[in-house]
Each structure stands twice: as C-alpha cells, then as structure tokens.
Design brief:
Elements (H helix, E strand, L loop, with lengths): L1 H5 L7 E6 L5 H16 L4 E4 L8 H15 L3 E6 L5 H13 L4 E5 L17 H12 L4 E6 L14 H13 L4 E6 L3 H12 L11 E5 L5 H10 L6 H4 L10 H21 L4 E5 L5 H9 L4 H7 L6 H5 L2
Parallel strand pairs: 1-2, 1-8, 2-3, 3-4, 4-5, 5-6, 6-7, 7-8
Helix pairs in contact: 2-3, 3-4, 5-6, 7-10, 10-11
The protein binds flavin-adenine dinucleotide.
The site of flavin-adenine dinucleotide (FAD) has 22 residues, from strand 3, strand 4, helix 6 and strand 6.
Cofactor: FAD
Organism: Wickerhamiella sorbophila
Protein name: Methylenetetrahydrofolate reductase 2
C-alpha cells in the first residue's frame, strides 16, 4: 500500500474498496465481478474483512486470494487478534504470503471476552503488529485502524482522539506503515484528526498515509445504524439532505447519499487528502457514481492498461 500511494504524485487522488466474504458461492462470484469493475474504474487496492475470532477465516482467505491472483489487484487482508487461537492467525499469515498478498490490516477485533482463555499474548492491535513484524520481517506492509472521532470502547462519553493518540503512536512504533480510519460523516473531524496526527511530537505520524474511511449511504435506517455502531457524529449539514425527501424511498436516499459523500470528499480533497477507503458493503453502484462525480476514475485506469499482468510484478507496482 505504501509503495502504491508513494508512487502517486501529490495531486493524484485515489480510492480503495473494502469487501466482506459473502456466505454463498454465487455471492462470491457476483462479488468478484463487482470488484473487477471497481478495479477497472481505478481502485488502487482492495481489502477483505475478517470476522472477529476467525469465524470467517477460510472465506476471507479464499476471497483475498482470488482478488490478489485472479483480478491482480493488490489486496489487504484484515486480521484480528483477540478471542482467537494462534494457529488460525499463523495459518492466515502463511496462506496470505503463499498467495502473494503483501498487505495486512492489523486489528484488535472485539474487546477480549472474560470467558475466553486467551491462548496468546496478542491483546491489542499493537501486539499483532509486533508479532507480524517478528515473524515476517518486512514482507508485509501493515496497516492499522485510526479513529477520527476517537475509539468508543463501550462508553461514548469516553470517546476522545486525545485518549487514543498514544495507542495509535504505539501501533506505528511497533511497525505499522499506514492507517485507515473508521467511517465518519463529518469532514471537519477528519481534517482536525489528520492535523493532530501530523503534528504529534513523536513525529511518527508526520508523513504516513492516513486514509479516511467513508461508507456510501444505501438507506436511511442503515445510515443511522452505521453511525451508531461506529459512534460517528452525523452533522446537521448531512442530515439536512434528508429534510425534503422521503427517507423511506431508498432511491432518493441513495442519490442524496452520493451527494453527501461527494461533498465530504470535496472538503477532504481541498484540505489536501489524497485517498479514500470505501466501506462498500459489497455494493458497487454508489461507489462508482461517487468516484466518477469526484473525477477519481481516469488517472489510474489509463496507467493500469500499461501494467504487467503477472502477480509478482503487480506486487511491486
Ligand atoms: P486497538 O488499536 O488495539 O485499540 C482500540 C482502542 O482500545 C484504542 O484506541 C484505545 O482506546 C484502547 N486501547 C488500546 N490499547 C490499550 C491499552 N493498552 N490500554 C487501554 N486502552 C487501550 N473488526 C473486525 O472484527 N474485522 C475487521 O475486518 C475489521 N476491519 C476494520 C477496518 C477498519 C478500517 C477499522 C477502522 C476497524 C475495523 N474493525 C474490524 C473494527 C476493530 O476491530 C474495532 O474497532 C476494535 O474495537 C478496535 O480495533 P483496533 O485495531 O483499533 O484496536
């Protein structure tokens, strides 16, 4: 990821897409098609989620392998470390390496459960980053999660960027290379967060990619649910888009959602942000519309046509 981002000039914008493993074979085939089309539009890389505890381990690994090998798109494998056996983790890392996957997003996952007999010393994302570095050296480019509004472990009142910052710095000092943030709807919050990261006295966040996470809006209830789950504030300038439409009509809501995400992206671009990570929920159309409207399509597609086809060469592209 860092090589890809580093190869762009400062004014080039990029996007990447997150998918989760579908439950059925047909679902996987449909998703391969969607991913391929988003890659054709210029997605710089894609990522595949991992269910806490490793419940989706095989499905995640199979999907990530197909993205990397069949589509030839650099793929980020999400991995969590709590409530999970070490063998599952070791198997995932070995499988990823064998598949030519060079990127991992190292996460804690759900908070440790009291009843779970933790078999490893990997309690939080920082421990996972250090473990991957110890076992694999520099083979993997490692990403970690950031929280533009602070991480809300249970009590929303304790949510604060200041409280989180030392943990983010520790993850980076343990060996992380890039950051993808939790979704948000308030561009100003991300801009302030990025500034805080850049100015952190440790200096370790000065120049590393901090990729903002955005989720296209597919229905009004799903917007409210996603905001609640991720403890994201929905500012009035976003909510007012729904004042004059029927919030039960998903077509109208999606169209408003595209406008909302484009507005957020424009503010981010004006502040100098280059990239965006889309939480796609395995859907394609809104992402395609957003990147088209925000002029993020053309540059990479033109370059991609000249790309070598082998997975090995793509890994270093
Ligand atoms: P950490 O960085 O370990 O910590 C999270 C927070 O816990 C810190 O910010 C801090 O507030 C607190 N904390 C950490 N260490 C300490 C300490 N030593 N003492 C006290 N407090 C501490 N979850 C999944 O299950 N699967 C996925 O695929 C997945 N993908 C994600 C992708 C992105 C981009 C993001 C942002 C999140 C994703 N998550 C996923 C969710 C993630 O697992 C949760 O947000 C989890 O609660 C925290 O993970 P973390 O890696 O940020 O944890």
């Amino acid at each position: 990821v860092t090589e890809l981002v580093g190869s762009l000039s400062a004014d080039e914008k990029y996007f990447c897409c997150e998918f989760f493993p579908p439950k059925t074979e047909q679902g996987v085939e449909n998703l391969i098609g969607r991913c391929r089309r988003l890659v054709d539009l210029g997605a710089l890389f894609v990522s595949v989620t991992w269910a806490t505890g490793g419940a989706s381990a095989e499905q995640t690994l199979q999907l990530a392998t197909r993205f990397q090998r069949e589509i030839g798109v650099p793929t980020v494998l999400h991995l969590t470390c709590t409530n999970m056996d070490r063998e599952i983790l070791d198997h995932a890392l070995a499988t990823a390496k064998a598949a030519g996957i060079r990127n991992v997003l190292a996460l804690r996952g759900d908070p440790p459960r009291a009843e779970y007999k933790q078999q490893s010393e990997l309690h939080c994302a920082k421990d996972l980053v250090a473990y991957i570095r110890k076992e694999y050296g520099d083979y993997f480019c490692i990403g970690v999660a950031g929280y533009a509004e602070g991480h809300a472990d249970g009590a929303v009142s304790e949510q604060s960027v200041e409280k989180d910052m030392p943990f983010l710095v520790e993850k980076v000092q343990a060996g992380a290379d890039f950051i993808i943030t939790q979704l948000f709807y308030d561009a100003e919050k991300f801009i302030a967060y990025e500034k805080q990261c850049r100015e952190h006295p440790s200096g370790v966040l000065n120049s590393m990619p901090i990729i903002p996470g955005l989720m296209p809006i597919n229905s009004y209830p799903s917007l409210l649910r996603s905001a609640k789950l991720s403890s994201a504030n929905i500012p009035p300038c976003v909510l007012q888009h729904f004042d004059h439409i029927d919030t039960k009509d998903d077509v109208q809501v999606k169209a408003a959602g595209v406008k909302i995400i484009c507005d957020i992206l424009q503010k981010l671009h004006e502040s100098g942000t280059q990239g965006v990570h889309f939480y796609t929920l395995n859907l394609e159309k809104s992402v395609a519309e957003i990147v088209t409207k925000c002029n993020m399509v053309h540059m990479l597609r033109n370059e991609r046509e000249e790309l070598p086809s082998s997975v090995e060469s793509l890994a270093t592209w």
